[in-house]
Amino acid sequence: MIYIVEDDVEVREMETYALKSSSFDVMAFECGKVMDEQVKTRVPDLFILDIMLPGEDGLNILKRLRVQENTKDIPVIMLTAKGTELDKVKGLDLGADDYIAKPFGILEFISRVRAVLRRSERSSSESMEALNLALGGVTLDDQRRSVTVGGIAVELTFKEYELLKLLMSRPGTVFSRQQILEKIWGVDFDMDTRTVDMHIKTLRQKLGVQGSIIQTVRNVGYKVQ
Asked: Which Gene Ontology cellular-component terms appear in the entry (predicted)?
């Protein structure tokens, strides 16, 4: 089951028709408020959210989905007419799994939907027990999705958290920028590797003095030690 939130009637009907023609069950809504009522009855396997919506926009809907227990792990694809890398980073940082800029072709749309669902299924089947990681003064509690430095809670974005968890789960292992992009942003997403550098920079800043556990391996990538 796929839920679509799109205020443009023609686009909403086109997306619905394309997905149903590809054997997906679909429910489409003009706003997040209407969708919220349906989520109480049934949680879908994928959300497709337009960013530019009247009232509550797609990014705010995404924020809510990522903090609600019943939807926090459900994959989300963002659709928008905006196509700059900054827009992509913002949505992905909040926990989106993919980002498709309008206008797009139907075949690409269906392909990206299937790819996100495949990744979600693979992630679920390969999921490990929740991790409790500690290195230096940094502690990561995966069950609560919380990070503390010296016992003080640190607020991280969705991607910052996943990036820290990746590095801390294998201390001493060097991850290249491309490996990080593939593991954190997804193999089907095309993004400049400078995005990794930007996230490492903000992550170090938020960890304060303990940010030094993240080490740069020149011309390769990053590790924690």
From this structure: cytosol; protein-DNA complex
